[in-house]
Amino acid sequence: MAPDLIKVEIIERQTVKPSSPTPHSSRTIQLSVLDQMVLSHVYFPTLLFYSGNNNITGSGGGATSTDMAAMRMERDYCQHLIRSLAKTLTHFYPLAGRLSKGYDMIQCTDDGAEFVTARVKCSLSQIFEHPDFEMLTGLVPAVGQPDGDGDGVSTRLPLLAVQANLFECGGIAIGLNFSHKVVDGITASAFISCWAKTALDDGDDDQVPFMVPKFDAASYFPPLDFLNSSQPSSAELVGIIKQDKCITKRFVFDASKIATLQSNLASALAPHAPTRVLVVSALIWKCAMEASSKSSNIPPSSFLLTMDLRRWFEPPLPKNLAGNVVGILVVTATASLKGQEESNETIDLKDLVAKLSKGIAQQKETYPTKLPFDSNQALQRAREYEKLRGNVDMYHLCSGIWCRFPFYEADFGWGKPTWVSVPSIGRKDVFYLIDKRDGKGIEALLSLSEEIMEHFESNPELLKYASVNPRVM
């Protein structure tokens, strides 16, 4: 669906505050060193689509048979979401706060999250036909522009913004924009689960709907004094993240195709079978490396992924520990020569799977995963990665793995999501993996330059296992 075929009309903007005030003892939260190493202006979006009355075949049916019925439906949808959001923010109270001027703390003063109500002049079936990811950006609330405060990021910007998109067919899409300075993917997923459970059990004020999060990551990952020391600023550390000229496309790997791919690559990790995430990641990396080649030579490459430190610590950290509780892992690879001619340079997928698996295991062994946590060592690893990214003769690819997140269980009272996705990523050489609705297949959202994407999406090896942006249903 072309971007000019969708019209998003903003009806109302409001602020939603926690239904109960945050206790004074919790009004200030120190950010951990892992939070500090995230730029203040980085937000990550999520979209959950719901088909109203199970009717997504066209507009004008079901609850929208009259204008009055449509207005009542819109009011009920939004009031339901706002009421349950306010209750949820009492548990996730930092998301209703604001960053301190030094960006090292969250001031939990109940300033609130932003809530936007919008009407969309089309049906879900039109979007689902062949999703356009530039178009989907209009379904996620835009967070205010930097205003020159400090490093160019306003301390008054909300840390969470939500947009309720009401479609002509009676469907709804909930778009969320989270501050990455405050939460990682697991924390964001926990928030969505808590909000949905609160909405589903609306009216039961005494019930705690979800495992209450712990916002004390700084006690596990001690912060560093970036302001009053010779340490680099967070911007210098992780590099300036800018909007790149790129294109985002969706590649769908059905469960049967993944099983075939796993079977074909099983000998690479014998006696252990490679996971579905590993084989899909390796295939994407291989095809992206090949597509990035400007000659017969395939450039060396780095692959960045993150690991959930909650699980990898010894002993494991609390599952409900909130914030950025992730460590970065970086694996590098080079092509090999088949014969003496450079034109025969190639990448063997089995070799790449084995290398990726071995590299991840080695990285996990050396990453600090015991208490007391060595914040300086984590900082040094991040600096080494930024130095590696400065090598313009290498191709660098970053991944975000959202598989096994319970997005498709998020029932706000009108059923489970029909589709979960993200809009255009806006940064090139980045991809996300998200479960299909069946929990077995995988959807990959990949952002590349137009030139590299043209070569990537026509790769015969990729097309053996993936479909390029098929219909959602």
UniProtKB/TrEMBL annotation:
Entry keyword 4Fe-4S: no
Positions of transmembrane segments: none
GO molecular function terms noted in the UniProt entry: acyltransferase activity
Highest taxon listed in the record's lineage: Eukaryota
InterPro entries: CAT-like_dom_sf (IPR023213)
Keywords in alphabetical order: Acyltransferase, Transferase
Classification via Pfam families: Transferase
Family statement: Belongs to the plant acyltransferase family.
Protein name: HXXXD-type acyl-transferase family protein
Annotated source species: Prunus dulcis (Almond)
